[in-house]
Amino acid sequence: MQTQATKRTSQKQVPSFEIGSKTPPGSLVSITQVKGHLRLLRAFHNLRVIVEECKDRRIPAFAAQMDKDSRWVWFITLAIDRFERWVKSLECVPLEKFISKQFPPIDVWMVWHAYLLNPCWYEEDCERLAVLQQLRLLNVFVVASINVGKLAKNQPSQSRITAWHKQTGSFFDPFDAMEELTHKQMECPRCRTRVFVPFVNDNGTGYSEQQFSAICPLPGCRLKITKGNLAVAKFVRDLTESEDGNENYMAGSLFFGNGKRDPRRAKAIKDQLTRSSQFCRKSSSSSNQRIARLDWEKEIKESIGYSWPLLRDAIAIALRDQPEATRTTILSAYEDDSPFSINLISAVLRQGIFTKRINELGWLRPGAFKDSDKLQVLEHALLRYHCFLDLAAASPNLMPVPTIDIDLIWHSHQLMGGRYGVDCELYIDRRVDHPLATEEAILSKALDNTCRAWQSRFHVPYMQCGCPSPDETVFERLIRVLRQYTGSRTRLQASLHPDHIPATHPSLHNAVLDPERGAFGSFGKPAHPQRDEKDLVRLSRPLGVRKKRSKRTDPESPPQLDEGFVAEKMTEEPAPLSPAPPYVGHGFYA
Q: How far is CA 203 from each of CA 181, 200, 210, 478, rounded to the nearest angstrom?
């Protein structure tokens, strides 16, 4: 790889961003876009503070009496309902009209933002779900061009407010909408009667609460409706959907674990399910296609007693020759009645963890990167992100774990909608996914592999925040010493701006710390997203910060967390930096 001549002038050097064997014409993400993303995160952070601390008088009395974590989950649930209304009302229009008439309120943008940051799920849903077809068209032509930071900062125009109300039947301001958003509309899984259930009630069984349940009002049915049998109905509905279209497949089956898209595999999985003895059509009593399909749905649901555990077992048998990871991925898409394949409550909560980390770094403050000295932090973060993509291109089987700075740029790239997928296909030959939740053991191994691969490829430590890198083998140590004497160059510098160093800590907002405590949205036992969030925020701080705050704010760590990979990565001693030449634009790989 050729080196770029460095001019010793007052002009700023523009590095080249190689990804694998290709060189983009420029940075895939601009500084302006990153700053806009930070302004958007600041708006999300401020919104959360208002809700958690009840700083708006329009918050209803019953919500004000909740603890702040429950109140925030309730607010997110309302936002997801508003997001669903919004996507159903969308029309594909030019950018200018979209911004003036259809760009959503901040709470809906928060949900859309979290959805976009799960790129493989998002892209699959935009292909698979009729409700997202207009959004799919907007992804390529509109989303990438939006100045999200400017729109989040500016007051909405009256025409935008009026258009929103006309399209969704809801007030534009989320706090104005609280008064009317009291019930969730759904279908009874058995008789398909329209049911309206409260988001919150006095006995803790409202739709936004962990112990949700409701009784079908139809006298001849009276089914106890739960998230479990709503999930059964959702799965069966997708399974029995007409096979006339080319994009008819089950959620979670389109992308391989490595980000490769394979529609033939997805179709084969659905065929395998529909032909299995657990789900095949036993009889057809009607020539009418719609009635025959409804009969088939009823047949499957009654055969498993509307039971989620029995459905899970039936899927395991039908797909027994598929990898366990494939079955798990498909099952994860069917946890409730939401038309979307991911748990958007969990997605918003986990992105909130990341936003808290960025805020703790001081990066959400207005003017945080106004000075050229501080702007260097974002410039180097951009460079590290392109190296992160280069690492993914060079190591197809690697699950790269980002640091906080890299994750910020990665998120900014994913907010470009369809352009992110196009860039991934062009430069990496697959989608680099951003998983919503990853178990601790898997994330630990992936982080170690990322550190080793980065050190090997770029000859500088991946993390400079005080987290020790994985132990070197004797061979790796010899190679490192040899490179020091042969003068191998790197496009990265050995040390960073002091304000940048804390951001090289691993980004852990997608970590599931302990599967026994219940992952987000699991049916096995009640989920505790708020408790998980607190633990992640506390444990993902550098140890020095944790010790300084522990006596005042942090509870004692549970014993089972003391030996997790997060603790292993944190010491008070700074990580030793191996000698490396200063940054000189771009260099070559060894």
A: 19, 9, 11, 65
CB 514 within 8 A of CB 539: no
State residue 11's pLDDT score. 46
- Whose CA is closest to 589, among 522, 480, 489? 489
Structure tokens at 166: 């006309």
Token pair listed for 536 = 């992640």
Query: pLDDT tens digit string along 207-239?
Result: 999 899 999 999 999 999 999 999 999 999 999
Instruction: Tell me which of 299-308, 312-321, 373-382, 544-553 is least confident.
Output: 544-553
Q: What is the SS3 assignment for 288?
A: coil
196 φ, ψ (degrees, to nearest 5): -115, 120
Cα separation, 266 vs 73, in Å, equals 33
Which helix (H) or strand (E) segment holds residue 133: the answer is helix 133-141
Proportion of the chain above pLDDT 70, given as a percent: 75
Tell me the three state secondary structure of residue 137: helix
Nearest-angstrom CA–CA distance, 217 and 188: 9
What is the band of 68 on the pLDDT scale with cuts at 50, 70, 90?
very high
Q: Where are the domains of the chain?
A: 184-332, 438-590
Q: Going by C-beta distance under 8 Å and a sequence separation of 6 or more, which residues neighbour residue 308?
A: 228, 229, 231, 232, 523
Only one residue has tokens 């508003």, namely 82
Residue 233 · residue 337 · CB < 8 Å: yes
Going by pLDDT thresholds of 50, 70 and 90, the confidence category of residue 402 is very high
The span from the CA of 356 to the CA of 508, in Å, is 12
Cα–Cα distance measured from residue 68 to residue 66, given in angstroms and rounded to the nearest whole number = 6
d(CA 378, CA 380): 5
Structure tokens at 247: 């994009």
HEC string of 427-453? Answer: HCCCCCCCCCCEEHHHHHHHHHHHHHH
CA 157 from centre of chain: 30
Q: What is the pTM of this model?
A: 0.82
Q: State mean pLDDT over 566-575.
A: 36
The half-sphere exposure of 569 on its side-chain side, counting CA atoms within 13 A, is: 28
Report yes or no: 351 and 114 within 8 Å, Cβ to Cβ.
yes
Reading the block at residue 500, the tokens are 């940048």
Whether the CB-CB separation of 282 and 232 falls below 8 Å is answered with no
Q: Which of 391, 417, 461 is nearest to 18 (CA)?
A: 391
pLDDT digits (tens, 9 = 90+) for 481-519: 555 544 445 567 656 887 888 888 888 777 776 444 433
